[in-house]
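Re: folding output
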Amino acid sequence: MDKPIVQEFRKLGVEIVPGDLADDTQESLETKLQNTDILINTTLPFIREHQNKLFLAAKHSGVKRVVPSDFGPSAPPGVMKYQDSKLKLRQFIIKNEIPCTFIQVGWWPSLLFPYRHSVEGTSIRITMGKRFYGSGKVKIAYTDLERVGDFVARIITDPRTLNKTVQTWDGETTLEEVWDIASRITGENFDDYPRFSAEDIESTLRNNPDFITMVMSEYRRSVFIRGDNTVEKAVGLGALDARVLYPDYVPLPLEEIAKKFYGSN
């Protein structure tokens, strides 16, 4: 409760109610959720038991809408274990008739841009940001991470999105296009970065990877190889197109997102 971000929220006039998903009973959570209109959950989807308890508490305390922790790319069942965990949470919410909205945002552009050669480190972000996956021609829907909140603010108060899935997007691109933009802005040639084929990714998955490697490899296969993460496919799976719902939304051009990324990296 003493973390700087909590203090920032307090300065903005936000009421902070401490709680613990693991230790609090459902009844305790119901009390804490009294007079709450909308519950947005950002907990990892694998922690289903605790989240189920939270969603039931929301229902019984009169919460008008719950938003589970999706905020990622679209993919059909059976492609990614991580995504399947999200889908199981959705099914629990639907089965228990809890008013809800599921929000998908596509891929984050910050995970598409290659890092400069001068950036060093072994974090997943940097490692992934120095690798090229697939042919580079697969279409990818994306939402700038800093614009997700703009969409969410509209979606959670829109009666048209109640009990619906919504796909947000700033644009669609390919990895090849992104790396071309990166080269123009930075003046660097990233052709020396390693390239990974579909077979390379499948080989990683066959060799019993650890949890994080499995999750990231399945994401790479879905996004960069299979091409699951497009607006058309998301709508085909039943999602509403946020850009159709909100035609006045002005997306940030990918070049501007790139300049912002390289300005801080």
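--- second protein (sequence, then structure) ---
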Amino acid sequence: MMFFDRVEERQIKGKFIVFAINEIDDQAYPLKNVMVQTSGVLDLSISSYPEIYIYRGKFKSEEELQAFQKYIVKLVRDANEKNNSIIRG
């Protein structure tokens, strides 16, 4: 189990990859085959088999949590679409 503070997309050797970023340890964990999970206590985690990444930040509301969850899913989906268009192109 690792902790992260933000997510970002990076382009490495022409491939788009989404990373969970741990700002404290200056680590970037690539996210593949992800499942974003939330809990009733405003916590968020990302499963990227075999690892689990726990969001270190705090959410003020369920809406804020859901918005961040949707942002992560969209970021991963967009990166996959970009990679697929490169392969097809």
